[in-house]
User: Which sequence fits this backbone?
């Protein structure tokens, strides 16, 4: 395969788009940021005429694959009725009811457009409810790119400080340091540190990915989620689960359904509408009602845009079908185990761990991975060479190690992928 036309188009686009892209997460991808013409099922077709089996899946949203008929038909039907009303529509109530039926923490919901937005809304609710300012987050957890929360997402070793009291590290040039003065960072999977910090009684909220999926795929330690839940309840601290990745992907009700731990607030996005720009804040009624009676501001011109509501209803209706998740579970497990075996047979030390629908491949990992710092043992440069080589075998996988699986990744597609991984593993 060749990617010369994509490379040239990115170069030309750089004259009007910084780096030729519209997200920093797409800069510098190997062999080059790609330009696509269309998607179909588990495949993407680029401007060079290549067909690639896609495990980016739009960075996670395309859980039903590209262009699923149920979603496309629902959106088309809604567009015939209008695009944007600056008012309410019946379909947004239907969408909200569906989320409330599926997600354990969802007594009420608010819709927005991006995960970064609903995280900020959750923080406001936590502060308004408690009258406190401090928010606790964890090393390696990503909750959006805004100034208040973009701290210690991937801090360098020489800056992150002692494990028991990590140094908050800003992740962007130009970041307003004052905006993060009430954001504190702790190591994840360490219950005692959370308990000790909450005992001071000045924390408004604790936010975490219930399973670390932005940094590797790291499961919570036994009793960790339950312990944090108990500590938050005892100190009247709001527990926020960021399920932008895990929501509707690791189970129909997200990680909270899987682990049986219910947060006070949940942020969701990505798989919620199969690629349409939509996020959701769900949680306790008394907290969500602060938008109405507590003076908490949350707005947005495009919130609950009817076409995205139609996409949500169609997507979640498919995910409620047992056969949809069974397909992801079966083929995702085969793929995960097949990659692990192929790398092992080639003599490559690797950790392949996670859920069937979202797992992580890390090369060079020997010791257990329990948090951000232990994840740093991965040989990132070698893995990037691996994913770059996979492109020439017709497989597109994220350079950060995450593999997303859709309901359209059939047995034949998984077999082709494992063949490609086997060939590339021998090559490197």
Assistant:
């Amino acid at each position: 395969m060749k990617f010369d036309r994509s490379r040239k188009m990115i170069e030309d686009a750089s004259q009007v788009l910084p780096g030729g892209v519209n997200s920093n997460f797409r800069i510098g991808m190997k062999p080059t940021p790609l330009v696509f013409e269309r998607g179909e099922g588990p495949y993407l077709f680029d401007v060079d005429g290549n067909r690639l089996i896609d495990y980016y899946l739009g960075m996670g949203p395309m859980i039903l694959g590209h262009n699923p008929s149920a979603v496309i038909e629902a959106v088309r039907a809604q567009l015939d009725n209008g695009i944007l009303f600056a008012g309410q529509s019946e379909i947004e109530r239907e969408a909200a009811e569906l989320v409330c039926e599926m997600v354990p923490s969802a007594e009420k919901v608010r819709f927005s457009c991006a995960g970064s937005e609903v995280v900020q809304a959750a923080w406001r609710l936590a502060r308004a409810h408690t009258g406190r300012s401090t928010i606790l987050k964890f090393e390696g957890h990503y909750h959006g790119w805004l100034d208040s929360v973009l701290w210690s997402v991937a801090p360098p070793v020489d800056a992150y400080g002692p494990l028991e009291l990590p140094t908050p590290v800003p992740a962007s040039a130009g970041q307003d340091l004052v905006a993060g003065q009430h954001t504190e960072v702790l190591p994840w999977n360490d219950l005692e540190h959370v308990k000790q910090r909450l005992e001071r009684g000045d924390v408004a909220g604790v936010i975490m990915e219930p399973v670390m999926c932005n940094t590797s795929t790291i499961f919570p330690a036994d009793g960790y989620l339950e312990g944090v839940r108990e500590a938050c309840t005892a100190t009247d601290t709001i527990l926020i689960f960021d399920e932008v990745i895990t929501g509707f992907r690791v189970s129909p009700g997200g990680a909270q359904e899987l682990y049986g731990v219910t947060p006070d607030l949940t942020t969701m996005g990505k798989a919620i509408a199969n690629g349409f720009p939509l996020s959701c804040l769900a949680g306790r009624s008394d907290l969500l009602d602060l938008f109405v009676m507590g003076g908490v501001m949350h707005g947005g011109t495009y919130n609950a845009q009817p076409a995205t509501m139609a996409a949500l209803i169609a997507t979640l209706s498919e995910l409620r079908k047992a056969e949809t998740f069974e397909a992801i579970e079966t083929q995702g497990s085969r793929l995960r185990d097949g990659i692990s075996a192929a790398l092992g047979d080639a003599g490559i030390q690797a950790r392949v761990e996670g859920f069937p629908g979202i797992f992580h491949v890390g090369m060079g990992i020997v010791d257990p991975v329990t948090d951000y710092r232990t994840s740093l043992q991965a040989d990132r440069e070698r893995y990037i060479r691996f994913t770059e080589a996979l492109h020439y075998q017709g497989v597109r996988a994220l350079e950060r190690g995450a593999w997303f699986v859709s309901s359209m990744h059939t047995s034949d597609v998984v077999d082709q992928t494992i063949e490609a991984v086997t060939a590339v593993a021998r090559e490197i």
In short: The chain has a mean pLDDT of 96. The domain at 69-319 is CATH 3.40.640.10 (Aspartate Aminotransferase; domain 2). The chain is about 35% helix and 15% strand.
